[in-house]
Amino acid sequence: MKTYHPKKDEIQQKWWLVNADGQILGRLATEVAVLLRGKNKPQFAPNVDSGDFVVVINADKIKVTGNKLEDKIYYHHSLYPGGLKETRLKEMLDTKPEEVIRRAVWGMMPKNKLGRSILKKLKVYRGAEHPHQAQNPEEYRI
User: Fold this and answer.
1) What band does 3 get if pLDDT is binned at 50, 70 and 90?
2) pLDDT (mean) for 25-50
3) Angle at which helices 25-37 and 97-106 pack, to 10 degrees?
4) Are residues 121 and 51 in contact, defined by beta-carbon separation less than 8 angstroms?
5) DSSP secondary structure of 71-140
6) Tell me, what's the pLDDT at 4?
7) Residue 112, C-beta contacts closer than 8 angstroms, at least 6 positions apart
8) Could you say which DSSP state residue 45 is in?
């Protein structure tokens, strides 16, 4: 019996529309990560980008459980001595809610070239409007 390996021209990529209104951040991120990687398809291979495009709308209306709004901290460094900056989840949701979802999904991607290329297929928007109507995204229920 031979092992099946998907080719690039055999892969069919769809567009999915995910509404984040009232969704819990981690559970939403796992579903989006599965769609992006293509793990929901029978022809999944871990070294081939067989996933779909995902458009997430209403990113500013996500929920988190527990005390994460006050306790969760995002770090980044300015590359200068003493340049470690920190931002709480509550501040990040007010200023850049798209980045909260993007970082949560990035944590579930492989940390290599394939993961970086897969993450480019994620489109996150703060409100309900998005510029991808021409692709006719199918609504994905979580």
Assistant:
1) confident
2) 95
3) 60
4) yes
5) H-EEEEE-SSTT-EEEEEHHHHHHH-HHHHHHHHHHTTS-SSHHHHHHHTTEEE-SSS--S-GGG-PEEE
6) 85
7) none
8) -
Q: Distance between CA 14 and CA 137 in Å, rounded?
A: 7
> Which residue is it, tokens 């989840």?
89
- β-bridge partners, 17: 55, 139
- For residue 3, give the DSSP letter: P
CB 104 within 8 A of CB 122: no
Distance CA(126)–CA(131), nearest Å, equals: 12
Across the beta sheet with 15-19, what order do the strands follow? 122-124, 53-57, 15-19, 138-140
Q: Label each residue of 48-83 as H, E or C.
A: CCCCCEEEEECHHHCECCCCHHHHCEEEEECCCCCC
CA distances for 142 relative to 19, 22, 68, 108, 129, angstroms: 9, 11, 22, 17, 19
Compute the distance between CA of residue 118 and CA of residue 50 in angstroms, rounded to an integer. 9
CB atoms within 10 A of CB 123: 19
Q: Say if CB 21 and CB 96 are below 8 A apart.
A: no
